[in-house]
Amino acid sequence: MMLGYPYGWKTAAGLFFLFILIIILRSKVVIKGHLKRVGSDDDAELNIKALYGIIRYRYKVPIVLFTGTSVQLKEQVSKTKAGIDTWKQYNEEIDAEKVARTIDKFKHLLHMTRNLKGWARKTLTKVHLLEWNWTTFVGTGDAMWTAMTTGAVWSVKTSIIGLLSQMVKLKSEPKMNVQPIYQGAAFRTEWSCIAQIRFGYAILAGLQLLVRMRKTKGGVKAWQNILFKA
User: Fold this and answer.
1) What is the pLDDT of residues 179-199, one digit of tens each?
2) DSSP readout, 190-216?
3) Would you say 156 and 150 are in contact if contact means Cβ atoms under 8 Å apart?
4) pTM of the prediction?
5) Which of 72, 48, 71 is nearest to 59 (CA)?
6) Contact 60, 75 (CB under 8 A)
């Protein structure tokens, strides 16, 4: 009988770790986005929480300056792992040339990586959109142009949510509103959303992407050279 004890403990330990693994894989990665613009004041924030809050990522853009030919951003990034916070701040300038280079990079990655679009579509089908709120107030100072602009904004919003509904799973009715302001020129908009994906699906998607990266010419290093080169 004594010989059976070690095997019993090993079985119990194996079942315990299997139980913990299942809990981890079934946990949710929660993504919250918020964007607000009132006049020339902007505020944008992205929060990602995983493993029941053990891992947190926060990206915030508190200042956006339009300089005519470019956009200057003040960025703040916070990462939390096991209760330890690290904050970093960046200043970045985005112009038309930088946008064009970024587009070229992603076109290159699409061309060199086998079925990257298919991977993205399959991954997005595992994303659940829990909340979508978007309210906009718009006025041009002229009643006719205000009405036309209101209709155009509605068209853009419905097109975006229509596209999203084909890519992710909507778990609630999206809330959208466009209010015309006839008293004068004005623009205010506020958007927020909450989405989630199971941690197991996120890990699987990451592994599938890694396999695709390794199969490209030059492997993972080729991806790094494209994404991070000046």
Assistant:
1) 999 888 888 999 999 999 999
2) EEEEEEEEEHHHHHHHHHHHHHHHHHS
3) no
4) 0.80
5) 48
6) yes
pLDDT in tens, 136-171: 999 988 889 999 999 999 999 999 999 999 999 999
The residues, any chain, with a CB within 8 Å of residue 113's CB and separated by 6 or more, are: 212, 213, 216
Q: Are 186 and 29 in contact (CB under 8 A)?
A: no
Taking only the tens place, the pLDDT of each residue in 22-38 is 898 899 999 999 998 87
Smallest CA-to-CA distance from 158 within 187, 179, 139, 134 is with: 134
176 token code pair:
């959208």
- Which residue reads 């947190």 in tokens? 56
How far, in Å, CA of 110 to CA of 125, rounded?
19
